[in-house]
Amino acid sequence: MNRVILYGFGYIGRMVAKEIVESGALEIIGAIDVDEKIVGKDVGEIIGIGKLGVKVSSEPEEVFEKAKPAIVIHATGSFLDKVFDQIVLAVEYGYHVVSTCETLAYPWLKYPNLADELSRRALERNVVVIGTGVNPGFIFDSLPAFLTSICSKVEKIKATRIIDPSRRRYSFQKKIGLGLTSDEFREKMAKGEITGHVGYAESLMLLSEMVGLDIANVIEDQEPIISHEYLETQYFKISPGKVKGIKGYGKGYGKDNKLKAEVEFIATVGVSDKDSIEIDCGKYVIKWSSNGVPGDYATVAMLLNVAKIVNNLKRGLRTMKDIVLLHA
Fold first, then answer.
1. Is the pTM of this model over 0.90?
2. Which of 33, 77, 226, 321 could be joined to 9 by an S-S link, Cβ 3.0–4.6 Å?
3. DSSP state of 128
4. For residue 317, what are the CA distances in angstroms to 114, 127, 205, 271?
């Protein structure tokens, strides 16, 4: 099965489309979006490669009715309760769904009822639904889980991701509050107008299930990082005293209140990208680091690589645990 419907044709959706065309491994047969500026336009023309013969539609039912069989690559939102109906509709039409929805990476934590309903429907329709990406999906969960393959036991895991948001897309810079005052940041976070990073807790619970950390309690939070100098990105002007980034964390504790795993995310203008993981294996410590996994490109690659194997997965609501098979 190599036919793909793109549900959500914003920045990530368009990157996915370009990669599909360049690689030739998959075929785009449908695209869905609500943006009136692109509805009715050819997918290829939107991404600047000439006509592909596939037009963006605002009517998912019409696309689903015509396109079978195919895999839906879904990239419209971060919160399962907001995109649940979109995913369920694809499932009801008999499509596998590979989604960037961060809370779908481990939906039983915050949306247990929706997760159970989605799992039931996927089983009834004999399809797979899975949430993936770079984070959640890789840096804070799948990668450290795989690194524990050389551990006989795991005492504690810490993963840290540091990025310069000035090299990321507009929507990312906006959602972490660049250019806002500290009060504006907190007000917009409280109202859900910006989100910061989504998925600290989901990554921890996913990691716990993969490795057997038995995390019983998770806390997460994030705060703005304030600039002391004037800064600019391609989208925002940041005056002294305004937000230049965020610092967030998630911590997972066992039933004995012992810290089992923690993740830290720092996105601030001007830093050097870096990812690092430290695993306490009891008798020794494993340390891994890189000069930064490129978030958008890595997300696209993860979506497409999972799409290529999704038909081989056990039916129902799945997680990256079903793909990362080797761990402690």
1. yes
2. 33
3. E
4. 11, 9, 16, 38
